[in-house]
Each structure stands twice: as structure tokens, then as C-alpha cells.
Amino acid sequence: MSGVKSQDLLIGEWACLGIICETPIHRFGVAARLKQAGDIGRIWTMSRALTYRSIEQLALRGLVEAAHEEPGVAGGTRTVYRATRSGRNALREWLGTPVNHLREFRSELLLKIELARLLKIDSSALLELQREVVHQSLQHLPSEVDSSGDVVSIWRNEMATAALRFLDQL
């Protein structure tokens, strides 16, 4: 993955990289999309300070670079960032990697699906791999929850079943 492993970046950094891969953009524009009301913020929300720090980290790793500067709205200039070839390759590989745990569906898997949609990347292979991961999870769970009311087992079974229905709908 261009020297970058999926565990090397935080999910917020992946979100920033995905936004920058879609189109060259300045840090404030990325932060706006990661606000709670933003298109990506519906899935993963970050403060402006964390967004700026994430973009700095991506630049240090060579995944994004300054493209040019433009005048800011309130004076000064804004640096517009674009993804490097390494950044685009790393993101593409990350977008094709299924999540390991059902608890990551709400954040990481939804983010991957949405970024792939925005970047016009076919996610059908990801969804098939994800389905296999969920099936494996189900095989390790008790098929019937005993009458003791083990809430963790009940929860895991229900989440795995719901995850499969979700994947089937996609």
C-alpha cells in the first residue's frame, strides 16, 4: 500500500485523504465536510483542529501535497492540497479492505462505502469480502443463545444478522 498500512492511519486521516482524493481542496473545505452536518460528517465527524492536524500528518507521510495557494475569504491565503499517487494508491487499497469487527461497521465500513461512491470506485469486491468476514463471525458465535440471557451473545448475533441484511441490500 505504498508503504502505508491501514493501521498506520487513523480513520479520520483516511476520511481527510478520501476527501482530498476526490478533488483538490483547502483544509477549511475538508473540515466543513467533516462537520456533523457535512456529507462525510454524517458518518465520521472531526473538529477543525483535528482535521488540520490530520492533513499535516498526511503531508508528512507523502500522501497529500500542496497544489497551490488561493486567497482566503477573510484575507490571507489558503493552501489547496491534492492527493499524491501514493495517497491515491493507499486509499484505493484501504477502500478494498473489509473491516475486521462488526463494531466497525457504523464508522469504518460506512466511510469506505461512501468514499468509494464519491470517488466512483466499484465497492462490490469489498462488499463480498465483508460478507465473508461476517459469515466467519457468525460461525464463531453460538447458534442459539441460551436461556441465561447472555446479552453480549444476543447482541453479537443480532448485529451479525443485521450486517448481512445490510450487505445484501447494497
Q: What is the correct CATH architecture of the largest domain?
A: Orthogonal Bundle
Shape: elongated
Number of helices: 7
Q: Mean pLDDT across all residues, rounded?
A: 90
The overall number of domains is: 2
CATH superfamily of the largest domain: Winged helix-like DNA-binding domain superfamily/Winged helix DNA-binding domain
> What radius of gyration results from the CA coordinates?
19 Å
Keywords:
single chain, 170 residues, mainly alpha, Arc Repressor Mutant, subunit A, 2 domains, 7 helices, 3 strands, 54% helix, 10% strand
What would you note in describing this structure?
The protein is mainly alpha-helical and 170 residues long. The chain folds into 2 domains: 1-95, Winged helix-like DNA-binding domain superfamily/Winged helix DNA-binding domain (Arc Repressor Mutant, subunit A, Orthogonal Bundle), CATH 1.10.10.10; 100-170. The protein has helices spanning 11-22, 27-33, 48-60, 85-95, 105-118, 124-139, 151-169; strands at 25-26, 64-71, 77-83. Strands 1-3-2 form a 3-stranded antiparallel sheet. The mean pLDDT is 90.
Which SSEs are present, and which pair or pack?
Elements: H1 11-22, E1 25-26, H2 27-33, H3 48-60, E2 64-71, E3 77-83, H4 85-95, H5 105-118, H6 124-139, H7 151-169
Antiparallel strand pairs: 1-3, 2-3
Helix pairs in contact: 1-3, 1-4, 1-5, 2-3, 6-7
Can you summarize this structure?
This protein has seven helices and three strands. It is mainly alpha-helical and 170 residues long. The chain folds into two domains: 1-95, Winged helix-like DNA-binding domain superfamily/Winged helix DNA-binding domain (Arc Repressor Mutant, subunit A, Orthogonal Bundle); 100-170.
